[in-house]
Amino acid sequence: MDIIAARELTVGYGRAEVLRRISFTVPERLITAVVGVSGSGKSTLLKTLAGLLPPLGGGFDFAGCPVDYGSEASLSALYGQIGVLYQDGALLNGLTLYENVALPVRMRYPELPEGVVRDMAHASLAQVELADSAEKLPAELSGGMRKRGALARALVLNPELVFCDEPSSGLDPITSHLLDDLLLRLRDSFKMTLVVVTHELRSIERVADRVLLLGDGGLRFAGDYADLAASDDEFIRTFFLRKDHHDDA
Amino acid sequence: MSGAKQVPGPPETVVLPKRLKAPEIVAVLAEIGKRTGNGTVTLDFREVEEFDSTTLAFLGHLTDCLPGVAAANVPDALVRAEAGFARRPDGCWPEKPAVAPTGTRFGRFLQSMADRFLNRVRTVGQFMAMLGDEVFHIGNFLKTRKGVYPGETWNQIFFMGYKSYPIVCVLLFLVGVTISITSVEQLKLFGADVYVADLVGYAMLLELVPLMTGVILAGKVGAAVTAELASMTVLEEVDALRTMGIVPTRFLMVPRLIAITLVVPLLVVMADVAGIFGGIVVARLSFGMLPATFLDQMLNTVDWSDFTWGLVKTVVFGWAVVIGAGFKGLTVGRSAEEVGRATTESVVLSVTLVIVLDCLFAFVIY
C-alpha cells in the first residue's frame, strides 16, 4: 500500500513554483530517497509533504486520506502520523536531550503518567544509542549525536512515516555511514517507512529502495533504485556520471 | 603606468611586464582608458611569464570585448591556459542589466507605493490574526491547562521580572529625580513648590511609570523574545514544533504572556515606589520638605484609581510588547541576518505600540 499519493502537485514559495504538477507515490515500509541537485526542490517538497508549506496546486493523500491545508484537523491528523528529522536536528536548545525527546509525548498526551513518558523517551534514545547522553543539552552534543537525538524525537511517538532532511549533511563519512545503518535498521526491524531527502549519492545507493529524482522543475524519475541505476535517460546518466566522479575523488 | 612600458617604435604598442596579474592589469586598463580615440592599442605579451586566472580572463576579454585593443605575441603557455579557461560561452558580459524598467517613472513610483501599502495591510492583518490567536490560546490554556511546557512560565517570570526590576527601579528613580528638579524650579517662581509632591505622584502613577516601564520592557524583554523566537524559526525549531503537533503560537507565546501579566504589577509597584522616592529626595534636599509631608500632600491628589489605571496601562503595554515581539520573531525569514533585523524592528514596533496605546488611554482616562 502507498502511504503517500501525490497528484499533480505544484510546490513553491509565493508565486515562485519550484516543482510543477508532479505525481508520485511513496510505498509503505520502504525507504524512498528524494534526490536531486541543490535547488531542485527536494526540501520544498518535503516541507509540503510534512504539512509546513501549502501546495500551490494539486494535492496529496496521506494513508488514504486527502491532506487539506485549510483544515487544522487535517493537518493535526497528518502531524500525528509523521516524524521529521531536520537538517540540523532542530532540537530545542533550552531543553536536555531527554526533555527534547519527551516533548512530543508530553505535549500531545499530557494525561500520560510521567513514568510512561520517561520509558518511551528512554526507549527511543536507546534505539539511536544515546541513552547515556539523555541529560546533556544540545550544545554539548556533536553534530552526529544531535541528528540521532532528533531522530529519537521523531521516532518517540511511533509515527507511520519519518521524513529525513539531508541526514548526512555536515557529517564525516563514518558518522554518515552509521546514520545510514540506523535508517536501514528502522526499516528492517521496525517496518518503518522513511522518506530521505538527500544529494549524497553513496547514501542513496546504500539505503534507497525507491527513488524520486527531481530536476528542471519536475519529477525526472520515480521508481526502484535498480531501475534508476540501469536507466539510459541522459539526465539520469549525467546525474550518476557525477556520482562516478565524486566516488573517484 | 606601473608595470608596463612603452617601446620607442610604434607609439601605440605597450609591452606588458613579466608578471601580469590583477594589479598590473588594473594599471594596463588605466593606460588603455587614457588612449581612447588614439587608434588601436596593441598589448605585447612577449615578456609575460607569471600569470593567473585574472590574466586569462583579461586576455579573453580584450580579444572579444575591448574595441581598439589587440593582443600580440601571446606566449604558447598563456594561449593553452586561456583555451582551457571556462569563460562565458556566448561572448561578453553585458555592461548593464539586460532588463529595462517598464512604464513611466511616476507609474513605477505609484506601483511601488501600492505594493508597500498592500504589504503593510497584509502585515497588520497577520498581526491582528496573531492577537486573536493569542487571546484564544490564553483562554484555552486557562480552561484546559494544556499546550504549555511545564516550568516554562516560571522561567519567563524569572527572566522578565527578576532580570528587569533593577533597571526599571534605577531608571524610574532617576526619572522621579529629574521631574522633581525641573518642576521645583518652576513651582518656586509661584511659591507653590509644595505642589511638587502632587505633580510627581500624579505623573509617576498615571503616566511616567507605565510609559517608561513599557519602553524598558520593549528594549529588554521585547528584543530578547524576538531574538529567541527568530533564532528558533531560522533553526527550524518552530517547524519541528509544528510537525510534532505542537502549536508554536501557543507553546511559545502563552508562557510569555502569562509571565508578563504576573510580572508587570510587581514591576509597577516597585517603579512607583522608586519614582516617588526620587521626588521625595529632591524635595527634601531642595527645600527641606519632610517625606511624611510629601506623602500627605501627594495623597491629597492621587488615589487608588490613578494607581489602578497605571497598572492596567502597563499590563496592556506589556502584552503589546510581547505580542509585537513574538509576531516579529515568528514571521522572520530564513537567514541569520534577518534575526538582527527582526530584533531591531521589534523594538521599534513595541515602542510604537506602547506610545499609540498610551495616547488612546489618555482619551479614555481623561
Helix-strand layout with pairing:
The complex is a heterodimer of chains A (about 250) and B (about 375).
Chain A: E1 2-13, E2 16-27, E3 31-35, H1 42-49, E4 57-62, E5 65-66, H2 72-79, E6 82-85, H3 97-108, H4 114-127, H5 143-155, E7 161-165, H6 173-190, E8 193-198, H7 201-207, E9 210-215, E10 218-224, H8 225-229, H9 234-248
Chain B: E1 5-6, E2 13-15, E3 19-20, H1 22-34, E4 41-44, E5 50-51, H2 53-65, E6 69-72, H3 76-83, H4 105-144, H5 152-162, H6 165-189, H7 196-234, H8 237-243, H9 248-251, H10 254-287, H11 291-301, H12 304-330, H13 336-365
Parallel strand pairs in B: 2-4, 3-5, 4-6
Antiparallel strand pairs in B: 1-2
Helix pairs in contact in B: 5-10, 6-7, 6-10, 7-10, 7-11, 7-12, 7-13, 10-12, 12-13
Structure description:
The complex is a heterodimer of chains A (249) and B (366). By secondary structure, chain A is an alpha/beta fold. Chain A has one domain: 3-Layer(aba) Sandwich (Rossmann fold). Chain A is 40% helix and 26% strand. Chain A has nine helices and ten strands. Chain A has a six-stranded mixed beta sheet with strand order 6-7-8-3-9-10, sandwiched between helices. In chain A, strands 2-1-4-5 form a four-stranded antiparallel beta sheet, with helices on one face. In chain A, strand 1 and strand 2 (16-27) form a beta hairpin. In chain A, helix 3 crosses helix 4 and helix 3 (97-108) packs parallel to helix 5. Chain A is globular, with a radius of gyration of 18 Å. Chain B is mainly alpha-helical. Chain B has two domains: 5-83, no CATH class; 119-365, no CATH class. Chain B has 13 helices and six strands. A four-stranded mixed beta sheet of chain B has the order 1-2-4-6. In chain B, a hairpin with a 6-residue loop joins strand 1 (5-6) and strand 2. Chain B starts with a strand and ends with a helix. Classes of the chains: A alpha/beta (249), B mainly alpha (366). The interface between A and B is medium-sized, with 26 and 17 residues.
